[in-house]
């Protein structure tokens, strides 16, 4: 079972659900009558996007983008690549980007600049996890679920080599998992 591979749970399922409800209520007030476009950045944001959007009690639309800056393992290539673009025009729209994590900040800086360049009316960022110690560019999220230390995290969308996204909590893997997979 997957639980045997986890050294430590940092954020429980209950904490994630409660936080999603809290941020959902704030977004409900902030975006009432604005019909924002909620943009999930695949694949990592899928569980949080599902949890958060059902807590927003006003009209929203949804779209999806795939960008990638990590190519396996635990290290970053530093380069952000667009793999799948939005289907929807963002011109004149209020946009809410939903992410699982901000680390170096490169992905979100790229995305925010791209959407503003396309004349979005506003671009706000919601992230489940922030790792502020990892930042190499200047960007902050407008809403942060949990600010966590600079360790490699898995679960609730966060993967190690595409595995562990389906864990219902956020944790750290035991060392032996890296030894067997590398
Ligand atoms: O702040 P940064 O250092 O740019 O890192 C954050 C990005 O890295 C992860 O995506 P990844 O490219 O691993 O794709 P995934 O969502 O499919 O796991 C995560 O989902 C963020 O998009
Ligand atoms: N899975 C995972 N992806 C990341 N991308 C940036 N930081 C992390 C992390 O801690 N875990």
Distance between the termini: 20 Å
Helices and strands, in order, run as: EHEHEEEHEEEEH
Give the helix/strand class.
alpha/beta
Proper CATH architecture = 3-Layer(aba) Sandwich
| Strand runs, count | 9
Bound small molecules, by name, code or SMILES, are:
1-O-pyrophosphono-5-O-phosphono-alpha-D-ribofuranose, guanine
In spatial order, strands of the major sheet run 4-3-2-5-6-7
Number of domains: 1
User: What's the overall average pLDDT, rounded?
Assistant: 94
Strand content: 25-35%
CATH fold-level label: Rossmann fold
Number of helices: 4
Q: Which radius of gyration do the C-alpha atoms yield?
A: 16 Å
- List the uncertain runs: none
Describe the model:
This protein is α/β, with parallel strands linked by helices and 182 residues long. It has a single domain (13-153), classed as Rossmann fold (3-Layer(aba) Sandwich), CATH 3.40.50.2020. Helix content is 25%, strand content 33%. The protein has helices at residues 13-30, 46-53, 106-117, 175-181, and strands spanning 6-11, 37-42, 61-70, 76-84, 94-102, 122-130, 143-147, 153-154, 170-173. Strands 4-3-2-5-6-7 form a 6-stranded mixed β-sheet, sandwiched between helices. Strands 1-9-8 form a 3-stranded antiparallel β-sheet. Helix 1 crosses helix 2. The protein is globular and about 50 Å long. The relative contact order is 0.20. The mean pLDDT is 94. Bound molecules: 1-O-pyrophosphono-5-O-phosphono-alpha-D-ribofuranose and guanine.
